[in-house]
Amino acid sequence: MVHKSLPEAMIFDVDGTLFRTETLILPAYHATFDQLRAEGLFHGETPPERYILGGLGMLLEHIWEQVMPEADRHVHRRADELLLKLQLDGLRRGEGELYAGVADTLQRLRERGIRLFTASNGLEAYVKGVVKHQGLEPLFEPTGMYSAGEFHTRSKVDLVRLLLERHGIRRAWMVGDRSSDVEAGHGNGLYVVGCDYAGYRKPKELDEADVRIGSFSEIIALLDGAE
């Protein structure tokens, strides 16, 4: 466990932490498989939604291995393209929702001088699209949206390490809902806040987090306790 000291920055996962991903991804997921079937790249019923939801927070290549393990790699890559396009189209139409309290809590953190960043295993355009179209962009550091898709990192540990080095951060909290977030935080000596409200995680995924919260706004009380 890592001691809870006052952070100069907070690093947030996106899906299942800031953004209620199912409100955007599920319509895009079904449309993706409709198109794959139309192109002759996939046959049969669309795999159950639990496979895509259970993969949130993983690298995309691992998600498709879980969703359609028998499909060739080029089918996985086409699915990447389709899902990204359909989600970005949805964001531009105003689809998708933040979790309760996210915008207000981030605003309060920013007002208290906390530098805000994202670190996601998603694609660059998706991560930046969520932040932009949900109106959160002014709250984050100007170059503070980090994604595996942009920096081609093989783990979130590496992604967070890169972020810390580039921005000269020594004390930060990692906030996320999956084991990869816990690993990324502790792998870089950070205090880890486990978000236990999304419902995507597997049993015991957040057991090693330093603290768990049932709503995003609880971060303010944690910060007060660190002061």
UniProtKB/TrEMBL annotation:
InterPro entries found in the cross-reference section: HAD-like_hydrolase_sf, HAD-like_sf, HAD_sf, PGP-like_dom2
Source domain of life: Bacteria
GO-annotated molecular function: phosphoglycolate phosphatase activity
BP term (GO), one: DNA repair
An example Gene Ontology CC term for this record: cytosol
Protein name as annotated: HAD hydrolase-like protein
Organism: Paenibacillus validus
Keyword Hydrolase attached: yes
Record keywords, A-Z: Hydrolase
